[in-house]
Structure formats: C-alpha cells, structure tokens
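Q: Make up one entry.
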Amino acid sequence: MQQQARQDAEKRVAAPFVLVEPPANRVLGYYTLSASVITADELPDKLAKTLPRYPQLPVILLGRLAVDQSCKGRGIGQFLLMDALRRSLESAADIAAMAVVVDAKDAAAASFYQHFGFTQLQQRPGRLFLPMKTVTELFPV
C-alpha cells in the first residue's frame, strides 16, 4: 500500500493522502486524487443537457482508496472518502471539476460508493460519479 502511494506521487500521476495512527505512524489507509476528464456522453442525459457542450468535461479522479485489512469496519473508509470529497471541492474552487469520479474494483466497492450518492456513468461499467454540486451540499459553508 505504501509503496504504491509513493510511486504514484513520484511519477506525479496521483496525489496520495495517507491516514496514519500515532505514535508509530502505522498506515491505516490512503487514497489518491488526480485530474481527469470524461465525455458528455458518459453522463446521464438529464445532467448532460444542463452542461456546456464541451467534448470533454473536467473531473477529479478518486483512485486507490484503501484501508488496512486490520482496520475494516471502523469507519476509516468513510472518513477517507469524506476527506477526499472535501479536498476535491476545495480543488474545484481553483481548478474546475464538475464531478468526482471513481472506478469501483468490484460490486462491494461500487455499493460503498453508491451508499454515499455516487451513480453509474453510462458506457463505463464500474465507473461511478458524484456531481460537484452534490459534494458542495455535503460541506455547507
């Protein structure tokens, strides 16, 4: 887990955010964020009709959200997800992003994200998104 996060950061393909437990700094979990794009035809028609007709739309890709196996069931995944969404919202204020996108590795992961409002993108099995407008509602100012 630590090695993959370090490699992503060194190659500048994703920014890792790590949750550690003091005093030994044991890694409890982490996630990565990176800039990405989707096409309008991947969005539900109702949402696509409300957006400018650009060939590609900016999004933030939430990748590699992982929790140490020994910590499962302690709410760490939810904590990391909320932190990722908050950071995404803050970033979108400076560099536009219309949604947060995630690639669920399996049905259990998809269910986890859907519990928090993520919905399936069209034409991309396992790829889910949460509009930034919805993220904004999670963190009222």
The helical segments are 2-10, 45-48, 76-94, 107-115, 132-138. The two ends are 34 Å apart (CA to CA). The CA atoms of residues 40 and 46 lie 11 Å apart. Residues 76-94 form the longest helix (19 residues).
